[in-house]
Each structure stands twice: as C-alpha cells, then as structure tokens.
C-alpha cells in the first residue's frame, strides 16, 4: 500500500503493539511461512486464516473488534414493526440469510427518536473497521443535529464491517426497510455513508430493489464504488511494507480490491450508476485508503445513466487555493466545511446537493478548515477513526486468502 509517511508509521506502530501485546513474532519466522504455505493449499472452504501460529493467538483478542461505546452496540432492543418484510420485502429481493432478531438488534434508535419531531430521518452507515456512532459523532451527526436538519439513526454491523460485504449489506437493507416502516410515508429517509458503507449501500440498492423507493437520497463520503488499489496494504502484515497479493485479509477488504469479483459484478449489474439521487464527496490524492481518487478515474465517482440526479464533488477542485482545498484524508473529509454545507443543502432540497445553490457562500465555506460548529478536536477525533479501524483489522480473527464467493442472487 502506498501510504503517507505519517500513516505508514501509525499503521506499523499498531501492528507492532499488537504483536508485542500478544507475544506474537515481530520478524518472519520459518514456522509462519510454512503455515501460510499450507493455508494457501487448502480448499476455499477452509481458507480461514485462523489455523496459523499468529492467528490462533489473535482469535483470543477478538473482543478488540467489538464496540467500546453503548451507542455502537449491535445488541439493541428495538420494537417489532409491522410491514418490514422478512425474509424478504418483495419477490424481487433476495431472502435474508441472517436471523431477523440479529438484523433488528444492529439498528440504534436514540431515546425518544420516533416521537420527537416530524423531521426527515438520516440513516448513517459506517465504513470498514467502524461502527455507526463512533464514525459520525464528531462530524456529520453533530452538524445535522445542531442544524435541526434531520433526526438520526445508525446501523452498527457486527464485526465492524470487516465481514463479507454481502452480509454487511443485509444489515443495511433490513435497516432501510425497518426504519422506513417505523417512520411511515410522511417522513423521508436519507442514507449517509462513509467508505465501505457507501459500497454496501449501493449493493443493497442494486440487489434489493424494494429499498430504492424507500430512500430519498444517498450522500456518500470517501466511497470506493470501484474499490481501491490500496486494499492489500490494509491487511495485517503489510503495514509499512510493499503491499502484495496473497496476504490474509478480512473478507470485506478483499472484496474492496480494485476490480474484485464483487466490484466487477456490482458494476456489471448497473451498480456504477445511481439508483437514487446521489451526492459523492472525495479528496484527491490524499485519501490514505481509497485510490484512485482523482478526476474521472476517482473510485468515488458515481454515474447517472438512470437520470436520478448525481453531484460528484472533488473537494480540492471546488475549494481551490483555500484552506478547504488542502489535505483531507479518508476520514477527516467527514469534517470538511464543504461536505457539511452541501450535505445540509441536499437534506433541505431533496438531493442531490447543488454547488450552484451554495455558490454565494462558497468562498466563506472553503475558507474554514472544519465545518461550522465543529472544532479542531472534532477533526482530530474523526482522524482517529483510522487508528481504531486499523487496530480492529489487525485483531480480526477470520482472515481469508481469497474473497468470498458471490451469493447466488448476484451470479
């Protein structure tokens, strides 16, 4: 993986701390190479890399993958709501494979959510290695709440979105149907995603067609709709080194490889174009996780062959030689002043966001380092998401050597 120097040092440090804490080897030992070689010869069914010397010990640390804040819990007690639809909402949808109680428990509804106002609702969807509240609490959740623009709920996918993207998508598909059934037709439901949360949501909108009319719009921050060329660099053992194929990775990381089977299948099925009005934000060149992210080749760029309405925003191109045109990373983009302003514009007007509607305030907006209402400490906390996600990625016990097989409905 090609990293900035600070990111490489950070990720190398995470790996070293994990190795020392667990008593793992800090150099390549022959027994480890033999283990990897043996694993590589197993059938696809047995490719979980928890049989080697290293991962036997990492399994014992698996609680690291879990949430640290009750608002990131995936064991929530939510009421049964009529009209959700299980095992499927329509005959056109694939059947859920995860128990309904498990899917419902992953949705976090803040206290008093449904009776507080008649405002529209935002469903927040986190990225790889993260849970819902921790992803957005110090950025867009705060911006939207302070502005009174919408009520917010979020989904906390077990194992922090590190499992199979197709399983992660089931939690999102169910959350969309559940929340829409809960709020009714009089309140709009918007989805805001970060990183993989957007890819998985686009998978849902492509393969669960019943969700499309339930979603007013999708607002995407740092998405990887075309995957990332840096995916192998996210795998434990590659931090600070030259990224290489064949390293054990969490399932969703392998599926986010640029032009992976999952990515190619999604795009062949029309997932490279919007199903609902979509606004996509990305940071050119300085995204530490997703590349390419520049111009017409940006992985975040969404097509609009269905004429749903799409606004693609490369923040440096729009903000130019202002503070907002500076370096923003994969996570800190969520605290960007232009991202906040255009998100509020999209929520107010129905999406997608419009640069022309905020043109009069563009210079003032881009002159800020963080969104109005946020502090530099909020940006620092948002940046810290990558540290947390990296630690979970190291600790994740069930790594694979090849991406999971596609589900029958996608083949």
TrEMBL record:
Key words, A-Z: Signal
Presence of the UniProt keyword Transferase in the record: no
Region (Disordered): 65-89
Signal peptide from the UniProt entry: 1-23
The organism's place on the tree of life at top rank: Eukaryota
Keyword Signal: yes
Protein name (Swiss-Prot/TrEMBL): Lipase B
Organism this protein belongs to: Neurospora hispaniola
């Amino acid at each position: 993986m090609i990293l900035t120097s600070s990111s490489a040092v950070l990720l190398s440090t995470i790996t070293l701390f994990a190795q020392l804490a667990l008593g793992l080897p800090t150099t390549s030992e022959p027994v480890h190479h033999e283990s990897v070689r043996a694993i590589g010869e197993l059938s696809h069914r047995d490719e979980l890399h928890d049989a080697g010397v290293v991962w036997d010990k990492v399994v014992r640390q698996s609680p690291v993958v879990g949430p640290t804040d009750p608002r990131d819990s995936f064991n929530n007690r939510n009421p049964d709501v009529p009209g959700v639809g299980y095992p499927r909402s329509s005959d056109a949808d694939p059947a859920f494979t995860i128990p309904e109680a498990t899917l419902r428990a992953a949705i976090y509804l803040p206290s008093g959510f449904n009776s507080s106002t008649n405002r529209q609702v935002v469903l927040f969807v986190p990225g790889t290695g993260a849970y819902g509240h921790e992803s957005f609490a110090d950025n867009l959740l705060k911006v939207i709440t302070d502005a009174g623009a919408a009520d917010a709920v979020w989904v906390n996918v077990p194992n922090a979105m590190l499992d199979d993207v197709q399983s992660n998508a089931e939690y999102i598909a169910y959350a969309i149907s559940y929340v829409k059934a809960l709020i009714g037709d009089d309140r709009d439901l918007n989805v805001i995603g970060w990183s993989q949360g957007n890819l998985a949501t686009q998978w849902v909108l492509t393969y669960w067609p019943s969700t499309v009319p339930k979603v007013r719009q999708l607002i995407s921050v740092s998405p990887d709709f075309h995957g990332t060329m840096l995916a192998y660099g996210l795998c434990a053992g590659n931090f600070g080194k030259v990224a290489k194929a064949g390293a054990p990775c969490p399932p969703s990381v392998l599926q986010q490889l640029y032009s992976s089977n999952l990515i190619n299948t999604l795009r062949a099925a029309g997932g490279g174009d919007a199903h609902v009005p979509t606004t996509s934000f990305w940071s050119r060149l300085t995204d530490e996780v997703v590349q390419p992210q520049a111009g017409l080749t940006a992985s975040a760029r969404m097509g609009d062959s269905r004429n749903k309405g799409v606004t693609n925003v490369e923040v440096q191109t729009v903000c130019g030689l202002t503070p907002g045109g500076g370096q923003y990373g994969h996570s800190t983009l969520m605290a960007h002043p232009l991202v906040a302003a255009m998100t509020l514009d999209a929520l107010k007007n129905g999406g997608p966001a419009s640069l022309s509607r905020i043109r009069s305030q563009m210079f003032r907006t881009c002159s800020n380092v963080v969104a109005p209402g946020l502090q530099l400490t909020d940006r620092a906390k948002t940046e810290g998401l990558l540290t947390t996600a990296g630690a979970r990625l190291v600790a994740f016990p069930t790594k694979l050597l090849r991406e999971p097989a596609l589900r029958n409905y996608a083949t």
